[in-house]
Amino acid sequence: MSIFEYNGAAIVAMAGKECVAIGSDLRFGVQFQTLATDYKKVYKIHDKLFIGLAGLGTDAQTMYQKLKFRHNLYKLREERNIKPSTFGELVSSMLYEKRFGPYFVSPVIAGLEDKTHTPYLCGMDTIGAIETAHDFMVAGTAPDSLYGMCESMYRPDMEPEELFETVTQCLMSGADRDALSGWGAIVYVITKDSVVARTLKGRMD
């Protein structure tokens, strides 16, 4: 078994019209043994920026703590929140500098740019090779089923409620086809005015 599949994960981020949504399943397990059903894999950096970290649970938590520390330093120095595109470059450089002993994580970054409220989505591999997307980005142990659902259900310029419904259906359907993720989900919808978090119940098996 790959080290990336040790704890299991399913993460989906999707862009809408001046809004973006990101969600993850809630299962935490050791291979096929479920240990917890309330483990969130999406972390808040600030109100317009969230990061999902699939992969090894311990590395994901270490990575989040380091990123939060870096963002706090940036905020002290610049007196403003970091832009999602800048944050993507920061995550990439942090992963690349550890390339000989990498963090076993697959980050997915979702946010809204400062003044334009343009959705920003990107993902990267273990050593920080960035791939941006204008529609959706997935990570975790169920990428094939997540990609299939997202490609069939995504439409450009969705409003926040429709975007939430689409991400929910994609995430739940993808996780249901994967033994290493599931047990419900949490989805964040980020607009220029608010962040709405909803917890979903899924199959409990």
From TrEMBL:
Q: Does the keyword Ion transport apply?
A: no
Name of one Pfam family that matches:
Proteasome
The protein's UniProt keywords, in alphabetical order, are: Cytoplasm, Nucleus, Proteasome
Domain of life assignment: Eukaryota
Where, subcellularly, is it found? Cytoplasm; Nucleus
Keyword Lipid biosynthesis in the entry? The reply is no
InterPro entries on file: Ntn_hydrolases_N (IPR029055), Proteasome_beta_3 (IPR033811), Proteasome_bsu_CS (IPR016050), Proteasome_sua/b (IPR001353), Proteasome_suB-type (IPR023333)
Q: How does it assemble?
A: Component of the proteasome complex.
So what family is this one in?
Answer: Belongs to the peptidase T1B family.
Q: What biological function has been recorded for the protein in this entry?
A: Component of the proteasome, a multicatalytic proteinase complex which is characterized by its ability to cleave peptides with Arg, Phe, Tyr, Leu, and Glu adjacent to the leaving group at neutral or slightly basic pH. The proteasome has an ATP-dependent proteolytic activity.
Output this protein's name.
Proteasome subunit beta
User: In which organism is this protein found?
Assistant: Coccomyxa subellipsoidea
